[in-house]
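We treat protein structure as text, and this decision shapes the records that our systems exchange. The remainder of this section carries one protein's record, kept here as part of the documentation:
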Amino acid sequence: MQLVFASNNKNKIREIQQLLPDNIQILSLAEIGCHEEIPETADTIEGNAILKANYVTEKYGYDCFADDTGLEVAALNGAPGVYSARYAGEPSDSIANMDKLLQALKTENNREAQFKTVIALNLNSEQQLFTGIAKGGITLSKSGQEGFGYDPIFQPEGQLVTFAEMPAELKNAISHRGKATRALISFLNSLK
């Protein structure tokens, strides 16, 4: 089975392909000739995932899945949330985003946060949504070289290290994207 993953983020594509069984081949947006920026204008994480999946299905005719992820910080009323990728403004800059978040939490004792990923799947003219959540907290400073995005400042519940300090296998086992992707895989496997 071939499915388009509505992303050109090489880190995300690699992470998801590692989680999928061998019989599912992922095509990136570039591989189907989609080089335009897909608008992410929804005000929810679910909404953006749906927008991206629908865009590819409607404009290119492929079965497709798209994800959107946000970091929701309790002390900031769920911010940066749907605006996580561009929290510090345009263009998207992970270091600037982390610095802004650490600054916003500088005097805050409540550092609870969660990563939320929603995957929208358009398959055989039907749409399914899969959600994965990883609870944890925001560290006081950046630590680790692995992963991407906010990984150097997010410490998942029950772990002594950040996502950026973990090997990919451990991160994939407990992460928001891993959980949402496993729900997607379980659904795809049930169609056999």
Summary: The chain has a mean pLDDT of 93. The first helix runs from residue 10 to 19.
